[in-house]
Amino acid sequence: MSRILIIDDNYDMLSMLKMILEKQGKHDVIACTGGQEGVEAAFNTSPEVALVDVMMPGISGYEVVKQLRADPRTEKIGIIILTARGQPVDREAALASGADDYMTKPADIEELLKRIDELVSRDKVKAQLNDAMLLPILSLKGGVGVTTLAINLAHVLQQIAPTVLLDLAPTTGQCMFFLGIRPDKHWGHYLENRDTSVVSLVQKHPSGLQVLLAPPLSWPYSWPNADTVGAILTQLTATTRFVIIDMPPLLDPTAQAILAKAHNILLITGDDTPAIKMTRATLQALQEYNKRLLVVRNAAAPGPRPPAEAVEKALRVPLAVDIAYDPAQITVVGKGIPLAAVHPKTPLVLGMKRITQLLLAR
Amino acid sequence: MQRTSKMIAEFFAHGYRVSGTYVSAKRPLADEIYDPTTNYIQLEEAYLSPIMDPAKISAYYVLALFDKSNLDFVLTVEKKDGLRRDQSYGMGSYQVPIYLTVPFFEIKGHLSLLNKNFNPRLYLGSDAGIFITLLDVTARSTYNPDVSYQGGVALINRAHISFFGETVV
Question: Domain A3-129 carries which CATH code?
């Protein structure tokens, strides 16, 4: 499944393409009826592929392509010009504007899906070399094991490709305590001095895990805004394959901007009623991202659990992964070691491996 | 023959290219173009480009009218979109290759005729409507020969034809 942006002023065409790409192509589709609106949507949502009509009121499709290519956030996305202007001169103009491909309307749907897949595959290969997958892990209710899961997932992914764990807690992150690392370097130093290289602030844990810590409680600088977090992520993604973000329990504009950029979002729920209710509310608030959301139930404490079916019924979404209570976790937390580094076959670590499989299959 | 309710065609006149949507639900584009009782054709969403920079969209109009007598030619990519209703049931079996010029363009295509005895003078001088239907068309810009337009049908204004020749098969 890929994120596809369609920009077309013809509402009928837009609806038809959206339906086909969602149902037949299994893609996550963002639809815009205007050129400028489409450019903004592309900047905010980082689609893999954009289908752009040429003839639109306001700015033309060619201008849209030029703006997308000129911005670092969208310069690498796949772009297909889809237009009723089907003359050779139009094809030349489309490719000259920076589009990767060109199709005339009415487009052959099978051919369109094939070309989208080709562009996505090309971009995935590029991404493996250049870009990172952003994966925020979130729960608006504390105590469900977000930091534990973030640390262990980062450790599992580190075995596959370079991974950075980013602790984004606005007030004293917990990763430093879980991993036993002194906060000598953290992203607060970047807020203090924007010339600081973010990568130089990443610390390496003895287990091999790379982590960018949150500032300690005494640090005077406040929670960064969306642009600042964007700059931090840009630097991290330039040098790594996966960025796992231990998200604070917030849905403010900064958190929303991160979620908008994310390739997938792990939403963590627990076994108790408040956790399930909060997850249900979070799902409603994050409706626009529902195709990128993976809901994971984690038993952070021992005790009876409601059946998974009951939780799914309450949440009205399936659980991607259901992790049983793992007594081994308590034995390592005081030692500053990720569970995945020492007990690779316990329930929690197997759950992280299952999440990894799901992420890589997407 | 199945017709869609809207279609896009290319209209060329006075050094401009206009890509416009014609609502063909009531009558086919060619019937509207050929109709001697109307002077104008109405387009929705018309995008205007100068012939010298034909991919550049220099203006957009939600609604536009064309004076049919000022059109040089109209081009449709799909053949079915450019035929009159009567032509859609069948055309002549004799194909006559034609080369002609209108302002800013030289056009190649073929006429579909019932009679193999083709006389260009009689054909152009007949009163069978102010437009003629040319099939499988390539229109090349006179001032920019690298730019060409291809279509299943071109409806060409007889009055704007300055050169009309039958080419060797």
Answer: 3.40.50.2300
Among partner residues B47, B147, B149, which is closest to A55 by beta-carbon distance? Answer: B47
Residue type, A302: P
Helix/strand number for chain A, H first, E second: 15, 13
- Identify all chain B residues contacting A105, using CB atoms and an 8 Å cutoff: 8
Q: Which CATH architecture has domain B80-166?
A: Roll (2.30)
Tell me the average confidence (pLDDT) per consecutive run of 10 residues in chain B, 169 residues long. Answer: 72 94 91 93 92 90 93 94 88 90 96 85 79 95 90 95 83
Domain extent listing, chain B = 6-77, 80-166
- Cross-strand bridge partners of residue B7: B22
Where are any strands of DSSP class E within chain A? 3-7, 28-32, 49-52, 78-83, 101-104, 133-138, 163-167, 203-204, 210-212, 242-246, 265-269, 293-298, 321-323
Complex prediction ipTM: 0.83
Angle between helices A61-70 and A35-45 (to 10 degrees): 30
Fold agreement between A3-129 and A132-361: yes
- Rounded to whole angstroms, the Cα distance separating A201 from A185 reads 5
Q: Which fold has domain A132-361?
A: Rossmann fold (3.40.50)
Residue A274: CB atoms within 10 A of its CB come to 10
Q: Is the whole model's pTM more than 0.90, yes or no?
A: no
Of B47, B56, B150, the CB nearest to A87: B150
Domains of chain A by residue range:
3-129, 132-361
Dist. CA A149–CA A299, nearest whole Å? 11
3-state helix, strand, coil in chain B (%, to 5): 15, 50, 35
